[in-house]
Amino acid sequence: MARVSASELEVLLRTFNSEHPGVVLGHGFLRAAAIVDGLRDRTTNEELGRFFEAFGDVRAVVADEGYRGERLGLVVFPDAGNCSAATNQTSDNYDSIVKVDSIGINREFLIKAVRLPKRMQDVIRFSNVRNLMGVLFAVNPEVADDLQFNFLERSVLLIGVSSETTPRDLTTRCFGGRDVEAAVMIRDPETSERVGMVVFAEAGDATVVKNRQPMPRLYRTCILANSVNHVHQAVLEGSEDRERRKETSATMRSLIPPQYLQSGDSTDFHLRCLLLKSSSLVDLSQGLHHLCCVAEEKLQVSGRLCAAVVSEALDAAILVYDDSQSTDKAYRSASRLPAGSLRLYDSSLFPMPAGKVVTRVSDQVPERGMLPELFTKPEYLGRVVSLRGIDANKWDARELVYYLTGCKLEALYIHRAERKVFAVFGSQSDVHLARLHKPRAWGKLCGWRLRFEDLDEACFQPTVPAPAPPEQKPYPGVPKEAIKLAKRLTRLSISHCSSGDTKGIAEGLIRLAAVSKPDVLLRKDFADTVVLLMGIDAGTIKPDLRSELVNAFGEVDLLRLHNEQGVALAVFKSQTAAAKLHQQPAETLRRFGVDRCEPIPGELDVAALVSGTSEMVRSFGETYGRVVSYVDSRSASAGTSSGD
To answer: Is 446 helix (H, G, I), strand (E, B) or coil?
Structure first.
């Protein structure tokens, strides 16, 4: 029988409970119920019941075809004996039948499935919408960064997304070939249930998906994103959350090997992680064995572990499981622990896009990509070993950690597809101790063939950055002296403006920017990303102002400061960063040494200003070239005359 997922069981139980209220939570249900897998097309509830009428008065329901493309049914027999007899028979009407009490679910699972609060079925909380927006900014900023919020018209929110569904599934296979621009999902912190967001290329597709019948094994409810109260505020706050989470996200990613994010569907990788910090329950100084014990005993997680890491320097620990259902269970268990006893971060808020390989070392040394850069620094030479003689597909990291007790172990990584296992020890002495110590358990683990193989020194060479592409100059062939002259004249024109001439000042700043970065001014979102800063304190320098703006609001693409007038033109990378600055009250702006901020006057023709500046710079270049040629020719002539 194919593995029946937790979400499929929940759908079956909820469907059955709606048809036969009270039965699921009644006495003896677990022993008298069976799941029928692989039902033939168009099998009805009545037909399913007739398949088993020889075993007494049965009640049956069929769930719609879902994620695996298989139809499931749930049958409840009069008693456990009839249920056992039915599971021993075969039929052409279905593939297999199995008793519910044989697949490891308990009464707590039944209660969760049938007593899901109605508010969770029909509505989505503001905090979840805000978190979805924060994740969208992290994964697809080009989609979310829309000051007019147009992307919301093309978006739907999904409630009750199954734990087997990944963001890639939502992007490629769930909506009948409709073009999807972005898909993200998070975990509800109160229920551990998942909610998702899908941004379509066309607004009409969002409406079609919302109006069609939900797919219970994929998601329970679908609503239009722009129908949620205060959704625009959620977008802005989500952008701020993304900025605040950058440090934690960087810490989490620094402990993950790049190879984990390069192979297969890694869009849900972060959902398979537990990120913890020191707390009353977790003492990082006690190492991996203690960490795994906490996960198993306190969080009741029993799934297969592919990585375990403890970093006292970063005050962080990570456990990575083969499936996300294990981490969902951990978060449910954590909610029942005493408040403050466990510092467990919600990993669903820290997505890890695969990104690009930035070094060339891993091309020559494959092991380099199987370890985080943190553990390939020169000081880890002799402390990182490859464990040979272990079946990487069979064993999990938790069991290996238990076998390696007695020496300090910082990290253990299993790469199942590559059949590689790496251990990071606290010191070279710990490696030596592990080599000498061979417990009997290793005989069971690998038949006494376990070997500790040192990695090549090339793994620990300093990172070689990929060569940066040559910088494209806006005015190739124009002498730098001519460009300097254009900047000087433009600055003089700004100085001649009166302090109240906002249009003239803005025009001058745009011309000044066009001398060096005309492409930024011609972006289609320029008007939504530019801010005019007025009343800047005397003595302000550009690096300090840029740093303040970046730290408070977001990345700055271009900044031009005119000290004499006390004005500046700032162009941000994102529309939301500019919007956040525009929303700041006067007292906040004063902390940055700025009196006020304004949009550029709407009547300015930016394209015409850029074009005019370009003509001026090229004209100066040609004039400068003629002057230089004239001077050179006169010098040559003078030299010839003096020689004569």
So the answer is: helix
Tokens representing residue 579 in the block: 């919007």
pLDDT band at 641 (very low <50, low <70, confident <90, very high): very low
Average pLDDT of the chain, as a whole number: 84
Count the neighbouring beta carbons within 10 Å of the beta carbon of residue 71: 21
Amino acid at 254: S
- Residue tagged 């997680």 (tokens): 301
Asked if residue 302 lies in contact with residue 296, where contact means CB atoms within 8 angstroms, the answer is yes
- For the cut 60, the answer to whether the pLDDT of residue 565 exceeds it is yes
Residue 368 structure tokens: 């380099």
Output b/e per residue, 178-201; b: 16+ Cβ within 10 A.
Answer: eebbbbbbbbbbebbbbbbbbbbe
In residues, how long is the chain? Answer: 644
Structure tokens at 14: 């909820």
Q: Cβ-count burial of 57 within 10 angstroms (0-12 exposed, 13-18 middle, 19+ buried)?
A: exposed
3-state secondary structure 62-109: ECCCCCCCCCEEEEECCCHHHHHHHHCCCCCCCCEEEEHHHCCCCHHH
pLDDT at 631 over 80: no
Q: What 3-state DSSP class applies to 467?
A: coil
Q: 281-308 pLDDT, tens per residue?
A: 999 999 999 999 999 999 988 889 999 9
Q: What is the Cα–Cα distance from 226 to 522, expressed in whole angstroms?
A: 30
| Phi, psi torsion values for 628, nearest 5 degrees | -60, -45
The two tokens of residue 532 are 């005019």
Which range (41-45, 66-70, 236-240, 256-260) has the least confidence? 66-70
Please tell me the distance from the alpha carbon of residue 81 to that of residue 382, in angstroms, as a whole number.
62
What is the C-alpha separation between 8 and 68, in angstroms, rounded? 10
With CA atoms as reference, report the closest residue to 181 among 158, 162, 206.
206
Does the pLDDT value for residue 358 go beyond 80? no
Q: With 0.70 as the threshold, say if the pTM is over it.
A: no
Going 187 to 269 to 313 to 552, the CA torsion angle's sign is negative
Nearest to 370 by CA among 206, 258, 474, 512: 258
pLDDT in tens, 373-394: 899 999 999 999 998 888 888 8
Mean pLDDT of 366-371: 86
Q: What is the dihedral of CA 14, 15, 21, 26, to 10 degrees?
A: -60
Domains and CATH numbers, the chain: 6-115 (3.30.70.330), 119-243 (3.30.70.330), 245-465 (no CATH), 480-608 (3.30.70.330)
Closest CA to 11 of 157, 155, 165: 165
Structure tokens at 307: 């990585």
